[in-house]
Amino acid sequence: MTVPNNPLSERVLVLAPHGRDAALARQLLTESGLAALVVPSLSELVQGLAEIAGAALVTEETVRTADLTPLSGWIGEQPAWSDMPFIVLTRQGGADRSPTAARLTRILGNVSFLERPFHPTTLISVVTAALRGRRRQYEARARLEELRAREAELRELNVMLETRAAEAIGERAIAEEALRQSQKMEAVGQLTGGVAHDFNNLLTIIRSSVDFLRRPNLPEERRRRYMDAVSDTVDRAAKLTGQLLAFARRQALKPETFEVGACLRGIAEMLDTVTGARIRVVLEASDAPCHVYCDRSQFETALVNMAVNARDAMDGEGRLTLRLARNHPLPAIRGHASSRSTFVAIALTDTGTGIAPGDLARIFEPFFTTKEVGKGTGLGLSQVFGFAKQSGGDIDVVSEVGKGTTFTLYLPEVEAADTAAIEQSGETSTIDGAGRKVLVVEDNAEVGHFTTQILQDLGYAPE
Description:
Layout: E1 12-15, H1 21-31, E2 36-38, H2 42-51, E3 55-59, H3 60-63, H4 69-76, E4 86-90, H5 99-108, E5 111-115, H6 120-213, H7 220-247, E6 256-259, H8 260-275, E7 279-284, E8 291-294, H9 296-313, E9 318-330, E10 339-350, H10 357-360, H11 380-390, E11 394-400, E12 404-414, H12 419-425, E13 437-438, H13 445-457, E14 461-462
Parallel strand pairs: 1-2, 1-3, 3-4, 4-5, 7-9, 13-14
Antiparallel strand pairs: 6-8, 8-12, 9-10, 10-12, 11-12
Helix pairs in contact: 6-7, 8-9, 9-11
Pfam family, one: HATPase_c
Coiled coil: 135-164
Protein name: histidine kinase
């Protein structure tokens, strides 16, 4: 911080046009080492104040009847740091003894009255005090200017930091997306290879069975066996395709009403072979019937996927607990609103390593996995999430590192289905198209041709 060293900044402007007051005041100030400038009129006083000055010394008779509007205007337009000191030489004392002094106090503001006659030392003391106050004002101005300069620097620095932060965030997002895409492509490659291998196996069975069916004089028993093999293989291929579609959350679900408790007991027994002998599977479910309406096969697959994740988290040893609760409301999950409707809650709790807080928000993303390369595609929990959403429910997860994880699957609870009506509706009869016309629309020519042949065999007239 610097204070102006311009000698004019501390000069005293003297306005005393009558008598010897001006000359005497300048002589006393000069002898005391103070700069003084005599101005002949009020207008020149205002001009000198506008340029630069440390204080103003005026006589009362000069300003008693003068128009002080220009001076008052200049005083009102001073910057916030400035409060120009005025010294008025009067013959009647201060504001408490002179009406003119009271008026001048209102106009000039920072004013000191010095009654004549006065001792020279008194004048020098009053002027020195005024200049000392003016000097502090200059220091305040310097501090304000320094603060404004620092504020401008901080603004520039803040803009620079915001720009660099935005660039860094953008670069990081691009890098993360590139890494994520690379991981996805790696997983897709692994998944594609596995699917191709499975389909080749299925096609081998179908092709071999068809070749044997073309043989003449094939015994009926063997013909049925090969036809059953083709039918079973097609079912397996359809199931594999359904699982692939489930990964994309586009599978065509076949919902049905079933009792969750019985299904869960069957899965619990099967999980022993999935998890291994060192993992204890515990089922906690009441005997009260509890029904849901969803695709049973996908429901079982979802539970198996969660159990496999639990097994991997426990490194093949621990405790897996399955809990079933009915009449359960749906809590708020991942920012979604809660629901007061009745839901069935199926929870799987493991005693594994837990999930890091930073990974919890991403575990349901397709292809996201914390497992080593080759040990997981990141599609299992994504399939569970897609199944839950398409079934009108949701899935929640709570985890503590080092203690374990709980996945809770919520599905809408429904009333038991009318078994008799279902069985009656399930009765089949011989199909006879009776020559009715059917319009076949199919973008695959081979599938369309095969469908047309089947419809013709059933008595329809396809077009």
